[in-house]
Amino acid sequence: MHSSASASASASTDTARPPRNMRWRVVDIVVASVIGVAAGVVFWLWGLAWPALDAALAFTPGLSGLLAGGWLFAGVLGGLIIRKPGAALYAEVVAAVVSMAIGTQWGFTTLIWGLVQGAAAELGFALFLYVNWRLVAAMTSGALAGIAVGLLDTTFTSIAALSFEVRAVYFVSAIVSGIVIAGIGSWLITRALAATGALDRFASGRAARAAEPDDPDAA
């Protein structure tokens, strides 16, 4: 009887829960833009540090793919915080534009990479129908962004001229970096921000603070 009553209460709660509003609000645009601009500055700084970091990983050719996540987190972070279709793509593209405007050494190709990486990160959340924002969704988004940058770099950059073995190491390293830096890293940042109350105007902040284990929006 108790289990019947619990099931009824749960069903009633699910029915009462209002459908998610996927339309963007002004605050969504503003915060997604702030994420993109801040990430763009990080992208630019990451680019400055890249030669030294790349040299430090030279003991295994191709291992520099582990650095790719430093340019992938904007999309995953934007998606996790805003929780609206298009947020991951928007944040990653804004970040790419900002880093390009500041003066990245890769010029206009930065925008192309940003578009592809952002679309891949977006796909990661779309696969979960924009209702699951847990760690697995963040890791999936990061992994797909890593696959995207791995394909781009091993096809259209100087890495394409290297041996198959080196390209394979780079490709796998980029995916790992996407999962760890962009995926897990962005998920942890989102949780940390939510804990401060900074995200209370967003579903991501409310879900994390409410800590409802059965809520598909819970972090």
From TrEMBL:
Q: Which UniProt keywords apply?
A: Membrane, Transmembrane, Transmembrane helix
Which InterPro entries does the UniProt record give?
Answer: ABC_thiamin-permease_prd
The membrane spanning regions, by residue number, are: 26-46, 58-82, 89-106, 168-189
Q: Is the keyword Lyase assigned to this protein? A: no
Q: Know the name of this protein?
A: ECF transporter S component
Q: Which organism is it from?
A: Microbacterium awajiense
